[in-house]
Each structure stands twice: as structure tokens, then as C-alpha cells.
From TrEMBL:
One of its GO terms (molecular function) is isomerase activity. Residues 1-33 form the signal peptide. Residues 61-256 form the Xylose isomerase-like TIM barrel domain. The keyword Isomerase applies. Keywords: Isomerase, Signal. Coiled coil: none annotated. PROSITE patterns: TAT. This is Sugar phosphate isomerase/epimerase. It comes from Salinimonas iocasae. InterPro entries: IolE/XylAMocC-like, TAT_signal, TAT_signal_bac_arc, Xyl_isomerase-like_sf, Xyl_isomerase-like_TIM-brl. The lineage of its organism: Bacteria, Pseudomonadati, Pseudomonadota, Gammaproteobacteria, Alteromonadales. SUPFAM superfamilies: Xylose isomerase-like (SSF51658). It comes from the Bacteria. Pfam families: AP_endonuc_2, TAT_signal.
Length: 286
């Protein structure tokens, strides 16, 4: 198996792209089934960041060949918003969401909005806080909540929604309080929503359904990411997380889009194929 520390080469990309092209030329019952589902199986492109570095248009063509129709971006890899929009249109794709670094919001929320409008994003997501950004005081999260409230109001005026994506550290007490509670309780539901990462939520020992019941309608986006028996990442549908039980409460959550993701994988093509198959089957049961 390929060592994760070895850079993904253009030759490897072309080999994988050829395999995806062959797949897309075959009958695609999964793709047809997805079109009949209530929602589409989406893909978070962070999973394919090595491929995106090699070729953005090639990667988008590949994921379209697997069957995905919705994407969530995590960087544009030197492409302009107009170029990204053109590539999406060429492949029959749409990108309802994008992860945008916290520093971009801090620098200019208006620029974030302009980019989102040019590409067609309906959600812009604060994806991660570095250890330096989160610090060691709950006041950091109170300030972040205030900022997100302001950014969310600006986004709403442009018909875009602001969301926050969790890891597990938001569920660890700081100064006796949970950072996630601060972000939920100190923002309005009409200004800030949440993208619940189902892996990291499980990793923190938190029940998603409890969150849905406490804050109905606020979880507009899911990251569908599985966990193996040791607590490590797994391809969707091969691990221990009961996605069907979680998705049975999707209406209470307020869910609108869901994205397959795996932070680290040694076989990206197999991961996104399995993720597409498993998530499509989950959505058909809703």
C-alpha cells in the first residue's frame, strides 16, 4: 500500500483517473438510485486534497465519474471562482458548501461572500480552529460566537448561510464549560448553523440525537465519516457508527446536505466509491 507520507504524483493521478473513467463508462445503477433519493450523496474534497493539488479539473471529472453530484470544497488550489464554476458546470456538478479558513472570515467576510456567490455555494463553513486559535480560555469561544453572529448576518443578507464544523475538542470542557455549547447558545439559529462531523462527535462520546433534540433545526450539514473498532478512520459503511439511526432523525436535525469524508486513506478511489455506495443506500432509506 502507498505510504501516506509519499506525495501523490501526476503518474499515480493519471492511473487513478483512467480507472475512474472506466468505472464511469459502465452502467451506473447507484447514480440512478441517487437521483431518485430525497437528497444526494455529497463528497468533501478534503478527502482528495492530494489529487486536487495535481489537477482540479481532473479530480472533479473523476468524482463525477464515480457518481457524485454534490461537493464541498476545502480550498481552490489556485483556481479562480470563475474557473471553479466552469469546471463544475462542465461535469454536471454543484458545490453547495465550502470550508473557508477562519482567517479568511477575519480578513474580509465580504470577500468570502463574493467567492461563494461566484461559485454557487449556499453554505460557507468555519472548518477548524488551530491550537493557537482556540487557546485555553472559554472567552475565545465567546468572542468567536460574537464574530460568527456578525458574519452570519452578513451572509444571510446575500442568501448564504454560515456554519461551524466541529472536531472533538469543542466537546472538552474549558473553564468548566463546553465550547460547543457556547457556540450553539451564543448565536442565533437564523444566523449560524452547524455542520456536524459524525466521526468526531462519536470520538467525543456525544450522541448526535441528543444534540438534535436540544437544538432542533440547527444541523444543516453532516460529515459522514466512519470509525473502526479501534477508533480510527474507516470507509463509510465499514465501521461502527450507526448512520441509519442518526439519519432517521435528519428532519429534527434540519439536514439539507451530507458529505462523505475520510481524513486519511491509502486508497482514495476505493474510499470515495464505498462512501458513495453506502451513503446513497442510507439516503434511500430515509
Amino acid at each position: 500500500m502507498r505510504n501516506l507520507s509519499v506525495p501523490f504524483t501526476r503518474r499515480q493521478f493519471l492511473k487513478t483517473s483512467a480507472a475512474a473513467a472506466a468505472i464511469s463508462a459502465l452502467p451506473a445503477p447507484l447514480a440512478l438510485a441517487s437521483d431518485k433519493a430525497r437528497h444526494h450523496a455529497g463528497l468533501q474534497l478534503y478527502t482528495l486534497r492530494d489529487w486536487m493539488k495535481v489537477s482540479v479539473p481532473g479530480t472533479l471529472k473523476l468524482v463525477a465519474g464515480v457518481g457524485y453530484r454534490e461537493l464541498e470544497f476545502a480550498g481552490y488550489f489556485g483556481q479562480s471562482p470563475e474557473q471553479i464554476r466552469s469546471m463544475l458546470d462542465d461535469e454536471g456538478l454543484r458545490a453547495p458548501s465550502a470550508h473557508v479558513p477562519l482567517t479568511d472570515f477575519q480578513d474580509s467576510v465580504n470577500k468570502v461572500i463574493d467567492t461563494a456567490q461566484a461559485i454557487g455555494h449556499k453554505y460557507v463553513v468555519v472548518p477548524y480552529l488551530t491550537p493557537e486559535q482556540r487557546g485555553n480560555s472559554i472567552d475565545v469561544y465567546k468572542k468567536l460566537a460574537d464574530d460568527m453572529q456578525s458574519w452570519g448576518e452578513a451572509c444571510n443578507r446575500a442568501n448564504i448561510s454560515l456554519a461551524y464544523h466541529n472536531h472533538d475538542f469543542e466537546f472538552q470542557k474549558t473553564d468548566g464549560q463546553l465550547p460547543y455549547d457556547i457556540l450553539l447558545n451564543n448565536t442565533d439559529d437564523n444566523a449560524v448553523c452547524f455542520e456536524l462531523d459524525l466521526y468526531w462527535t462519536a470520538k467525543a462520546g456525544v450522541d448526535p440525537v441528543t444534540l438534535f433534540n436540544q437544538h432542533p433545526g440547527r444541523f444543516k450539514l453532516f460529515h459522514v465519516k466512519d470509525m473502526d473498532s479501534s477508533g480510527a478512520f474507516a470507509d463509510v459503511g465499514t465501521g461502527t457508527i450507526d448512520f441509519n439511526a442518526i439519519f432517521s432523525h435528519a428532519d429534527k436535525a434540519g439536514l439539507t446536505h451530507q458529505f462523505v469524508e475520510r481524513d486519511q486513506t491509502q486508497d482514495k478511489l476505493a474510499t470515495i466509491q464505498q462512501g458513495y455506495k453506502a451513503l446513497t443506500q442510507i439516503l434511500q432509506q430515509r
